[in-house]
């Protein structure tokens, strides 16, 4: 999607991916290699104006190595913060960004001590790695601690107090090379089994005060990291108060709606930012819903028959719990959007069930 956004701007791309079947090959040259293979990364970066990335799992040492010869934006520091949940949460707190209570867990006795301090329920997570619900366990009573420890206790962990949130939100923003920050409207996200299923943009009931509170959770972070590019902070809405859950130093799934639903997509603005170009408007065009296609794509013709629907097929082999595409449906107002959204979700569910 970054490549697709850049082609109209006259840009060309070379991608590094461990799979020879990576779909990025359709929009640029593909270098096949592991993301921690500095030689392969250097081959991909040879002659480039700038290097960027779209996954927070890129090894920070690869970004550091490349930065000796070509600008890498966002910087390796953003990866280092985002890749360790304890460092990430500590950075949030230091910047005055509220989070759930948390404690580091390095051995079995420290888990008991953390539970005694934070209480239950709580969520035990690996400090590094894990996404879409992987690498974590919910502890609801004392007996869950032993099971969780056997499952994920072979790595440094963090215990987070359980947050009785009303809904999950996120804010996506872009920071330019000059330090200018632009934010898209806050969106509401619905997850199932740890996987993002639906994003509503803007979030229902969004007003200027809520938007300002969300922006206060991302602007200080971007400035602290001297960040360049698009980033996201996922948030818990607790009776109007916002708690930061985690950051993603990249274009984000909850920002996919911006391709059709905003003046400038997150992908185009990321490219503008890393190249030092002027940023585009982040205003929403009406209202949108983005529905992830999990495991399988819905019937193409049925989706395209829905007014305002836009289908994105990632051309990935069908696999359980895998994001293989998304559908964004747009409208001028909520009343018009609602039946369209319902039909899209019905089609997506039917394809997943099938």
CATH topology (fold) name of the largest domain: D-amino Acid Aminotransferase, Chain A, domain 1
The assigned structural class equals alpha+beta
Give the percentage of residues in beta strands.
25-35%
Helix content: 25-40%
Q: N-to-C terminal Cα separation, in Å?
A: 27 Å
CATH superfamily of the largest domain: ATP-grasp fold, B domain
State the low-pLDDT regions, or none. Answer: none
Instruction: Quickly give the CATH architecture of the largest domain.
Output: 2-Layer Sandwich
Write the H/E string, N to C.
HEEHHHHEHEEHEEEEEHHEEHHEHEEH
Instruction: Using the CA coordinates, give the radius of gyration.
Output: 20 Å
Mean pLDDT: 96
Tell me, what's the shape? globular
Q: Class of the largest domain, according to the CATH hierarchy?
A: Alpha Beta
Please summarize the sheet with the most strands. 9 strands, antiparallel
Helix count, DSSP H or I runs of 4 or more residues: 13
Q: How many domains, as an integer?
A: 3
* Topology, number of strands: 15
Provide key terms for this protein.
D-amino Acid Aminotransferase, Chain A, domain 1, 31% helix, 4-stranded antiparallel β-sheet, alpha+beta, 354 residues, Rossmann fold
Produce the secondary structure layout.
Blueprint (H helix, E strand, L loop, with lengths): L1 H5 L7 E4 L11 E4 L5 H8 L14 H8 L8 H7 L2 H10 L7 E4 L2 H11 L3 E5 L9 E4 L4 H9 L4 E5 L5 E9 L5 E3 L3 E6 L2 E7 L6 H8 L3 H6 L4 E10 L2 E8 L9 H4 L4 H9 L12 E8 L5 H5 L4 E5 L9 E9 L2 H20 L1
Parallel strand pairs: 1-2
Antiparallel strand pairs: 3-6, 4-5, 4-6, 7-8, 7-9, 7-11, 9-10, 10-13, 11-12, 13-15, 14-15
Helix pairs in contact: 2-3, 3-4
């Amino acid at each position: 999607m970054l490549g697709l956004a850049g082609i109209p701007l006259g840009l060309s791309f070379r991608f590094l991916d461990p799979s020879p079947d990576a779909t990025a090959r359709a929009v640029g040259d593909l270098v096949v290699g592991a993301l921690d293979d500095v030689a392969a990364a250097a081959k991909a970066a040879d002659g480039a104006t700038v290097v960027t990335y779209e996954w927070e799992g890129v090894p920070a040492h690869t970004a550091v190595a490349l930065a000796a010869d070509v600008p890498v934006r966002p910087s390796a520091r953003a990866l280092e913060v985002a890749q360790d949940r304890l460092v990430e949460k500590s950075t949030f707190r230091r910047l005055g960004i509220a989070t759930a209570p948390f404690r580091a867990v390095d051995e079995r006795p420290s888990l008991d001590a953390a539970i005694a301090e934070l209480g239950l329920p709580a969520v035990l997570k690996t400090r590094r790695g894990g996404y879409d619900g992987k690498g974590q366990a919910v502890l609801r009573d004392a007996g869950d601690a032993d099971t969780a420890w056997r499952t994920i206790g072979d790595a440094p962990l963090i215990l987070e107090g359980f947050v009785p949130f009303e809904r999950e939100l996120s804010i996506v923003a872009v920071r330019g090379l000059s330090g200018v920050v632009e934010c898209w409207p806050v969106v509401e996200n619905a997850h199932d089994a740890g996987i993002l299923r639906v994003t509503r943009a803007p979030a229902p009931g969004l007003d200027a005060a809520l938007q300002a509170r969300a922006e206060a959770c991302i602007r200080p972070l971007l400035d602290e990291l001297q960040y360049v590019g698009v980033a996201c902070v996922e948030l818990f809405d607790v009776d109007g108060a916002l708690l930061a859950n985690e950051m993603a130093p990249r274009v984000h799934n909850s920002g996919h709606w911006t391709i059709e639903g905003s003046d400038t997509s997150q992908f185009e603005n990321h490219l503008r930012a890393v190249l030092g170009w002027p940023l585009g408007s982040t205003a929403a065009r009406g209202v949108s819903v983005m529905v992830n296609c999990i495991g399988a794509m819905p019937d193409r013709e049925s989706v395209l028959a829905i007014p305002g629907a836009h289908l994105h097929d990632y051309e990935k082999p069908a696999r359980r719990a895998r994001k293989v595409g998304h559908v964004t449906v747009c409208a001028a107002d909520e009343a018009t959007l609602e039946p369209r959204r319902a039909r899209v979700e019905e089609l997506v569910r039917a394809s997943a069930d099938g």
